[in-house]
Specification:
By secondary structure, this protein is mainly β. The protein has a single domain, classed as Jelly Rolls (Sandwich), CATH 2.60.120.10. Strands 1, 2, 3, 4, 5, 8 and 10 form a 7-stranded mixed beta sheet that branches. A hairpin with a 4-residue loop joins β2 and β3.
């Protein structure tokens, strides 16, 4: 985890395996540790030809693609999945509380993206009010 006021280059942030996503990541918290308005984000790297695990959350997430290209599949239970493409420089936000899964379609280079999440999810305030993120362990993975 990086906790600072500035990160000079997100493309060089060291990442490590994160089981929840099934990919490599590093948290980045911008602001003072006691600052309730600190911005939270994570840098994620998806290996060539791989994907993250299906996920959904009750907060907004804004994704900016730093390197590579791929697709994201989005679905709600009982509805037809929708898939869209993205590449370096793309910005998107999966719908709140919808299942989604990011895929690296390259067989040779990793994808790297940064995802911004609300401060209430990452900050001191979340601890004060006892807010906890709950993830379902059951999802319908999509094949690509």
């Amino acid at each position: 985890m990086i906790r600072d006021f500035i990160v000079p280059d997100l493309s060089t942030v060291k990442v490590k395996s994160w089981d929840r996503l099934g990919a490599s990541e590093s948290w980045v918290i911008l602001g003072a540790p006691e600052d309730q308005m600190a911005m939270g984000a994570y840098v994620c790297e998806i290996a060539p030809g791989k994907s993250i695990k299906p996920q959904k959350h009750l907060y907004e997430e804004i994704v900016y693609v730093l390197r590579g290209s791929g697709v994201t599949t989005v679905w709600n239970e009982g509805e037809k999945p929708l898939t869209f493409e993205w590449k370096r420089g793309s910005t998107f936000s999966p719908p709140i509380n919808a299942w989604h899964q990011h895929f690296n379609r390259s067989g040779t280079e990793p994808v790297r993206y940064v995802a911004g999440v609300p401060h209430i999810h990452t900050g001191v305030y979340a601890k004060r009010i006892g807010l906890q993120q709950k993830q379902s362990a059951i999802a319908r993975p999509c094949a690509h």
